[in-house]
Amino acid sequence: MLMMSATVLACCVVLGLALDMSIGEVRRYHPLVGFGNMANVIERRLNHPEASRWKGALAWCVTVIPLVCCTQVVLILAARFSLWLAPLLNVLLLYFCVGLRSLRDHNLPIQSALQQGDLDTARRLTSYIVSRDTAHADEEYLAKASVESVLENGCDAVFGTLFWFVLLGGAGAVLYRASNTLDAMWGYRNQRFLRFGCVAARIDDVMNWIPARLTALSYALLGQTRLALKCWRTQAPAWSSPNAGPVMSSGAGALGLALGGSASYDGVDEVRPPLGMGRNATAQDIQSAWRLVLNVSILWTGILVLAVIVMSGTLYAA
């Protein structure tokens, strides 16, 4: 029974990623968009200038727990109803939660616009994926912003989702992406969210701790290993985020790029710690970063499938 479950799990991962790469994200009525809209409504009702961390914790629980519980109940009922319905639903849940192709679809057009010299389009497209100012950005700034976004989301949108899916199935993927989405919406250190979003940010930190380090290790193994490990060791501690630092420093080192540094947020220049070592980012590096994320996905999917095959052979031999 355990072996069958492992086999089905591996098949679900392969099929979910294949579905994501072949179809891409849903253009209309995406579940994560609906979740974000619901989170906005809850935040407006519970967040106010005197809101405490407890209000933020309550908002997180009200937003996430019913969704995850309902998902798990549906999967349990589906498993009792049909042998194939639950695996099919798990594949669909992984497809809706993972964002491998969406990383490509949102970032490679930036590369194309930069290579064509269309800075206005590149600035507009980059503004969709990052919170930093892009209105007057040059090519190097935009390329750096896109590469950093790809590397960070290689964990948040791809590997972290796969990790929690393997650990807890479709409900685990939903739990992770819901938590990650709330961190992206509420986890700002500004007057509005400093207390209210604190719990969402800390929960996301905890859920990402292992996936982030596995992602950083994978970047190092698949790129310039020594440089990536050196950057991870020396640069990650300087970042306030316990997970973004390892992921982006290792990824930048793996690509041999110098990222980090100055960035503008709401008109205020912020000097961030350095990421990686080497040359400055160019438009072509956006595709290189996405290929690194793709290769990480292939690597771990292959490891999962290989583990199932080895376990199957051991079981049959016994």
Automatic annotation (TrEMBL):
Question: What are the UniProt keywords, alphabetically?
Answer: Cell membrane, Cobalamin biosynthesis, Membrane, Transmembrane, Transmembrane helix
Record's family?
Answer: Belongs to the CobD/CbiB family.
| GO BP terms, alphabetized | cobalamin biosynthetic process
User: By its UniProt entry, which InterPro entries does this protein fall under?
Assistant: Cobalamin_biosynth_CobD/CbiB
* Cellular compartments per GO CC: plasma membrane
Job description of the protein: Converts cobyric acid to cobinamide by the addition of aminopropanol on the F carboxylic group.
Protein name, UniProt field? Cobalamin biosynthesis protein CobD
Question: Quick one: which pathway?
Answer: Cofactor biosynthesis; adenosylcobalamin biosynthesis
Q: What does the organism's lineage look like at the top? A: Bacteria, Pseudomonadati, Pseudomonadota, Betaproteobacteria, Burkholderiales
Q: Molecular function (GO) terms listed? A: ABC-type vitamin B12 transporter activity; threonine-phosphate decarboxylase activity
> Where's it found, cell-wise?
Cell membrane
One Pfam family from the UniProt entry?
CobD_Cbib
**TM regions (residue ranges):** 57-77, 84-103, 157-176, 292-317
- Would the keyword Transmembrane helix turn up in this protein's UniProt record? yes
According to Swiss-Prot or TrEMBL, what is its membrane topology?
Multi-pass membrane protein
Q: Which domain of life is it from?
A: Bacteria
